[in-house]
Write a structure and sequence with these properties.
The protein has 190 residues and is of the alpha+beta class. Helices cover 14% and strands 21% of the residues. Strand 6 (164-168) and strand 7 form a beta hairpin. The longest helix is centred in the N-terminal third of the chain and has 20 residues, at 7-26. The chain starts with 6 loop residues before the first helix and ends in an 11-residue tail after the last strand. The mean pLDDT is 76.
Length: 190
C-alpha cells in the first residue's frame, strides 16, 4: 500500500487539483483563488462587480441632505456664541397611587419609561425673569439669556404646547415642567 506522503502520490494529487482548476476557469465561474491567496472575502459565491451610478432621491439636485436627516433643533445650535451653558438637571415625575405602591396593579416601575412629566431645573444666577427667552419644541429646549445659553435635546418627545415654567428668584432657578408624549403601550395606557 502506497503512503500518502510519498513523492509520486503528492505529485499526482497536485496534477489532479491543477487540472480541476483549469476546468473551473474554462466554465467561467469567476476567478479562482489559490490556497495562499484565500481570504474571508473569497468564501461563497463570486459577487459580480457593478459599475455604480448614484441616483439622487431628492427633486432638487443641489440639496446636500434631506430635511429628515437633520436633527430637530440643529438650527438653534451656534458654536460661535460665547455665552456659557448654565447648570441644569432633568428630573422625571410620575403619578403614583396606592394601587401602584401596595398592589402593583398598573405595572408601573421607577424607570423613566413610566414617567408622565419631565422637570428641567436650570440654574440662572444673576438673571432677571424678564431677560429669559424660552422656546420649546417636541424634542428641543432652547433657553437664551444675556449671559447664558442652553440648547438641550430632550430624551423624550414632549407636549410643547402645554408646558409650565416657573422662575424661583430665591434659588435663581427656572423650573420647566413638560408632559412627556408617548405612544400607548402596556405600561402607558392611560
Amino acid at each position: 500500500m502506497d503512503s500518502v506522503s510519498s513523492g509520486s502520490s503528492l505529485q499526482f494529487l497536485a496534477k489532479l487539483l491543477h487540472d480541476a482548476q483549469e476546468e473551473d476557469d474554462d466554465e467561467e465561474h469567476g476567478p479562482h483563488c489559490s490556497v495562499s491567496a484565500m481570504t474571508p472575502g473569497s468564501i461563497g459565491p463570486v459577487k459580480k462587480e457593478t459599475t455604480g451610478t448614484f441616483q439622487v432621491k431628492s427633486e432638487n439636485r443641489k440639496t446636500i441632505w434631506n430635511t429628515e436627516e437633520v436633527p430637530e433643533g440643529s438650527e438653534f445650535d451656534d458654536t460661535w456664541d460665547p455665552r456659557e451653558q448654565p447648570e441644569y438637571q432633568i428630573l422625571f415625575k410620575q403619578c403614583v397611587g396606592t394601587e401602584d405602591v401596595f398592589f402593583g396593579m398598573s405595572r408601573k416601575d421607577p424607570s423613566t419609561a413610566c414617567c408622565e412629566e419631565m422637570v428641567i431645573k436650570i440654574k440662572l444666577p444673576e438673571t432677571n425673569y424678564s431677560d429669559i427667552a424660552l422656546d420649546i419644541q417636541d424634542k428641543v429646549l432652547d433657553l437664551r439669556t444675556p449671559k447664558k445659553k442652553l440648547l438641550l435635546h430632550l430624551p423624550y418627545h414632549v407636549d410643547s404646547k402645554n408646558g409650565k415654567a416657573c422662575f424661583l428668584s430665591e434659588e435663581e432657578t427656572l423650573e420647566v415642567t413638560l408632559r412627556v408624549s408617548r405612544k400607548f403601550d402596556f405600561i402607558n395606557f392611560a
